[in-house]
């Protein structure tokens, strides 16, 4: 028999990823990494990380790599849509852009003429708030808010009112020098690639990583220690650590006096209009106390802290600060008394003095005052914060708390980091080296998404400050353009000018009661009640309250709700079922209670079905975007950075399958400018009424927020010779494209630490336009802004809260951080018995918000979710692994499948967020696992508190309290779970399902090759 040689396939051992490569910025999460996009035959072939990019240095995660399937998603919208059926069914007819824009302008024009506040404009995870906020300001509506209102405003406000910066994406640990890192409530969905790079560096150096989280996943899985804390108790844990540090005198008083307001005098006048305010001189400078006899028996400072200092911005070399004792179990404060003899009050920013930090003093005008640090010690040395007192509530052994406090102190004080870098402080004093505390912290939504989240964030910052661990070598570091003055200078707009525009952007930072957006009776002027007495410091607005309030006409009826990329009928909604009802409910006249809904998105999401007019957006690879320093910058601690996206491909050529119709889509930013020009909005038209800007790309280049300040900081000036500030450069976008899509300007080496008081940094930041002045920024242990609100609630000042809010404001506007039980657990009678478990969500590393979980490649990792519970929890409730169970809250009930996992605190259950889909949404098959077995905890979460008096939110900032949820669980009987389908289920949306053909993307490329 004749033998035949086997047929071997031709294998290309060095295939090229494509025939062309372009660089841009990823949009698959908030990380905003640099990517290289390879094209073949005009289609996206491969996405890889850009090794030259400052954010990710070439590292790319599963989400970023799967951007191909985001771009070619079957759920992409193709044409503008006009509703033809009942709202919420998903029944539309396609229309042309001229008709769509005419309809939008036709609805918005009369609103602009009679009352701009009848437009509520709310944007989701769009990353272009520098434009959308400006557009709302020019339209003249106060009703504008952004994604952060239900996502991260506690983090932002807690930091910006304490440090002038914050966690999240605006600061980072010192990855190169830190020896001890605490991660508080950190999931894997934000800033993931820089964190992974940083954790790798820490692990390589042998630094200790401690993860504080009810769930151990992702970063927590590689941590050296996991502390499975009960949700909502992080602040209490932080106070116990503070208690131990104070008791042991392991604190950095020199740091607190140099850079914070520890020595500022606070007036003690109970019942008076000045009680709790800072004592100031005639020019408004805060005062401190110097000289005179020691105010009480205060032994020598503890080893490694105050006693070791070498110099101080304020203190003289040989004069010790007053410091709490460390010789007794609970060190006594010095006795209060009358004036302290020969001492005197002087401006707190005076140098070469040794100010008192404890004791009570009598000012020249007879008023009594104590230093901030005195108040701090009074509060946190209270036995209620001792480890044994908080251990059971936090679920952390008292010995563990004491050990962590010792480890923090040892890491901070026993081996300080010393860098041989000379620098000059804000007072002109020269330093030969930079000395820092190698303890760093990072925190995210796990601590902020609670009704006590604002104060928890402040508690963590207080802990950092006591350790001297903010912007020193080895600690948490600011990223430019931070730090900002405290509070930041931009206040929310509330008055309309002659041209109809607001006097400032709708979002901002309240400095006192006079900045609230309320009417003459103290009632809210905004549809979301942000910046009202109910939620005064709501710096990002409150998207989660808009739909209920618009439906109820509280405080007034609106005409049009316009939203961009905000899936508010599904995974971004609390009280999901009622939210869908409010969107479709009709009044007695038969008309919808919310008359018009305009929605812009790239995909057929659950929210798209509730729109009257749909404006189809591009994918992120088909448009220009500005990742601006005016918005959410991508800087690192050593440099200021911004970036762009630019069209890698033409949307009209991007078909998923051969024979598909061309898409007719436009970037929402360009659409917004078009609508603004049609309405003749200030700044968007020329004198002859013609559009000022051709499109968003033109706006990015030519718009100036202030003379010389635009959306992008790189290559400004006529020839691109300037940075940060300068006239527009017509070639600016091309310069970005040529440079890989980003710009970077390094902070001078001598200015990279102590940014709040470093003359080199302050001058550089002022030159770059980040600061209006180069004055030092004093960190605020004690917040006078908070005290102003408390005084107003006590009946002082011209602006006082209505009677129904007085107790609330007086309680929660404490100038020092406090802890209180999250509202849902505290307000339910017998709550601990009826609903014994906390329920939280996390986002997986491989998905991000709802739009990632419809991605064909990412769906191969997971197409459904489980409710994860500890095996001991299952045993307590008679539940076996993979049983179907009923989960009940005070608000609702769901049916889900349970799965055992030992990586969760036993009194907590959890699941992945946003994987569950409504049937028919995202053009998934109506029987897709995401809708049959996937689910949302959102169905259990009420949008109001159990008492029904306020939104289910933090009382200071209004952030949605997603993680306050309390539940009970029980196994379903066999008769209950025969269908093995998650509940509740809703009617399927009418979107046409995607083609059933397998998405074997890439086969054609191989065939062609």
From TrEMBL:
Cofactor dependency: [4Fe-4S] cluster
Gene3D superfamilies: 2.40.40.20, 3.30.200.210, 3.40.50.740, Dimethylsulfoxide Reductase, domain 2 (3.40.228.10)
Molecular function via GO: 4 iron, 4 sulfur cluster binding; metal ion binding; molybdopterin cofactor binding; oxidoreductase activity
Biased composition (Basic and acidic residues): 306-321
UniProt-listed InterPro entries: Asp_de-COase-like_dom_sf, MoPterin_dinucl-bd_dom, Mopterin_OxRdtase, Mopterin_OxRdtase_4Fe-4S_dom
EC number(s) given by UniProt: 1.8.5.3
Pfam families, sorted: Molybdop_Fe4S4, Molybdopterin, Molydop_binding
Keyword Metal-binding included in the entry's annotation: yes
The keyword Repeat is annotated on this UniProt entry: no
4Fe-4S Mo/W bis-MGD-type domain boundaries: 19-75
Keywords recorded for this protein, A-Z: 4Fe-4S, Iron, Iron-sulfur, Metal-binding, Oxidoreductase
Sequence ranges of Pro residues compositional bias: 480-491
Sequence segments annotated as region (Disordered): 1-20, 292-348, 478-498
Main location: other
Gene Ontology annotations for the cellular component aspect, listed alphabetically: cell envelope
Compartments in which it is found: Cell envelope
Family: Belongs to the prokaryotic molybdopterin-containing oxidoreductase family.
Name under which the protein is recorded: Anaerobic dimethyl sulfoxide reductase chain A
């Amino acid at each position: 028999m004749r033998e035949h040689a086997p047929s071997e396939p031709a294998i290309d051992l060095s295939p090229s990823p494509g025939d062309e490569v372009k660089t841009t910025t990823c949009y698959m999460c908030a990380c905003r990494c640099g990517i290289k996009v390879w094209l073949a035959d005009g289609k996206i072939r491969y996405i890889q990380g850009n090794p030259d990019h400052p954010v990710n240095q070439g590292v790319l995660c599963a989400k970023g790599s799967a951007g191909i399937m985001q771009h070619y998603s079957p759920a992409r919208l193709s044409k503008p849509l006009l509703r033809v059926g009942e709202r919420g069914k998903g029944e539309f007819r396609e229309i042309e852009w001229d008709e769509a824009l005419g309809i939008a302008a036709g609805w918005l024009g009369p609103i602009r003429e009679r009352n701009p506040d009848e437009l509520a404009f709310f944007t989701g995870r769009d990353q272009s708030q520098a434009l959308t906020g400006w557009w709302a300001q020019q339209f003249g509506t106060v009703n504008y808010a952004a994604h952060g209102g239900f996502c991260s405003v506690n983090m932002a406000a807690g930091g910006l009112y304490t440090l002038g910066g914050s966690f999240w994406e605006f600061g980072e640990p010192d990855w190169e020098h830190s020896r001890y890192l605490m991660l508080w409530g950190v999931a894997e969905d934000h800033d993931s690639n820089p964190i992974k790079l940083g954790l790798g560096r820490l692990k390589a150096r042998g630094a200790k990583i401690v993860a504080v989280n009810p769930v151990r996943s992702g970063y927590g899985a590689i941590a050296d220690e996991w502390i499975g804390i009960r949700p909502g108790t992080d602040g209490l844990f932080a106070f116990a650590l503070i208690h131990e540090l104070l008791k042991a005198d392991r604190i950095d008083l020199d740091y607190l006096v140099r850079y914070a307001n520890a020595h500022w005098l606070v007036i003690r006048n109970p019942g008076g209009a000045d009680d709790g305010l800072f004592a100031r001189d005639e020019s408004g400078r805060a005062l401190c106390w110097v000289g005179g006899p020691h105010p009480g028996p205060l032994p020598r400072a503890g080893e490694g802290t105050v006693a070791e200092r070498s110099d101080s911005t304020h203190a003289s070399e040989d004069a010790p600060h007053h410091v709490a004792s460390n010789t007794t179990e609970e060190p006594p404060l010095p006795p209060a008394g009358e004036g302290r003899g020969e001492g005197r009050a002087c401006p707190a920013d005076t140098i070469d003095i040794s100010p008192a930090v404890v004791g009570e003093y009598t000012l020249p005008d007879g008023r009594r005052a104590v230093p901030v640090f005195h108040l701090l010690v009074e509060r946190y040395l209270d036995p209620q914060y001792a480890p044994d007192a908080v251990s059971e509530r936090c679920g952390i052994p008292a010995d563990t708390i004491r050990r962590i406090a010792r480890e923090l102190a040892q890491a901070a004080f026993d081996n300080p980091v010393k860098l041989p870098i000379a620098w000059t402080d804000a007072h002109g004093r020269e330093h030969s080296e930079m000395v820092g505390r190698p303890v760093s912290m990072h925190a995210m939504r796990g601590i902020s998404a609670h009704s006590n989240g604002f104060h928890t964030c402040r508690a963590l910052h207080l802990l950092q400050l006591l350790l001297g661990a903010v912007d020193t070598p080895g600690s948490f570091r600011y990223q430019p353009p931070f730090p900002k003055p405290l509070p930041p200078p931009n206040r929310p707009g509330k008055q309309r000018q002659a041209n109809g525009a607001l006097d400032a952007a709708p979002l901002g930072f309240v400095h006192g009661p006079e900045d609230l957006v309320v009417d003459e009776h103290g009632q809210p002027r905004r549809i979301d009640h942000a910046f009202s007495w109910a939620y005064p410091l709501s710096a990002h607005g409150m998207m989660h309250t808009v739909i209920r309030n618009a439906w109820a006409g509280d405080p007034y009826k609106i005409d049009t709700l316009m939203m961009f990329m905000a899936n508010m009928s599904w995974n971004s909604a609390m009280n999901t079922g009622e939210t869908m009802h409010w969107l479709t409910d009709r009044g007695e006249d038969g008309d919808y209670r919310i008359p018009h809904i305009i929605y812009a998105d790239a995909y057929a999401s659950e929210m798209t079905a509730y729109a009257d007019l749909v404006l189809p957006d591009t994918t992120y690879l088909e448009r220009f975007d500005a990742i601006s320093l005016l918005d959410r910058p991508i800087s690192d601690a050593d440099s200021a950075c911004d970036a762009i996206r630019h069209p890698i491909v033409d949307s009209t050529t991007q078909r998923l399958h051969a024979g598909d119709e061309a898409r007719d889509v436009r970037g929402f930013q360009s659409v917004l400018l078009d609508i603004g020009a049609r309405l003749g909005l200030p700044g968007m038209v020329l004198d002859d009424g013609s559009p000022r800007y051709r499109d968003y790309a033109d706006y990015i280049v030519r718009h100036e927020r202030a003379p010389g300040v635009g959306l992008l900081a790189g290559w400004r000036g006529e020839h691109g010779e300037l940075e940060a500030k300068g006239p527009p450069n017509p070639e600016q976008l091309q310069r970005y494209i040529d440079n890989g899509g980003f710009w970077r300007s390094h902070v001078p080496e001598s200015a990279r630490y102590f940014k709040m008081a470093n003359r080199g940094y302050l001058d550089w930041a002022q030159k770059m336009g980040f600061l209006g002045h180069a004055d030092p920024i004093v960190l605020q242990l004690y917040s006078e802004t908070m005290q102003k609100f408390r005084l107003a609630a006590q009946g002082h000042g011209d602006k006082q809260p209505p009677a129904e809010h007085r107790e609330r404001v007086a309680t929660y506007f404490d100038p020092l951080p406090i802890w209180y039980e999250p509202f849902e657990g505290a307000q339910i009678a017998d709550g601990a018995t009826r609903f014994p478990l906390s329920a939280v969500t996390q986002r997986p590393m491989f998905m991000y918000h709802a739009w990632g979980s419809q991605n064909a490649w990412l769906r191969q990792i997971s197409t459904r979710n489980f409710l994860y519970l500890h095996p001991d929890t299952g045993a307590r409730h008679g539940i076996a692994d993979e049983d179907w169970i009923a989960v009940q809250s005070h608000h609702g009930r769901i049916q889900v499948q349970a799965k055992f996992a030992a990586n969760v605190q036993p009194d907590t259950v959890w699941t992945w967020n946003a994987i569950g889909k409504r049937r028919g949404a995202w053009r998934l098959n109506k029987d897709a696992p995401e809708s049959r077995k996937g689910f949302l905890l959102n169905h259990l979460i009420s949008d109001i508190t159990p008492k029904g008096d306020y939104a289910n939110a933090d009382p200071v900032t209004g952030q949605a309290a997603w993680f306050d949820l309390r539940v009970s669980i029980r196994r379903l009987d066999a008769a209950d779970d025969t269908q093995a389908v998650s509940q509740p289920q809703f009617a399927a949306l009418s979107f046409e399902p995607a083609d059933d053909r397998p998405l074997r993307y890439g086969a054609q490329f191989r065939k062609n090759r």
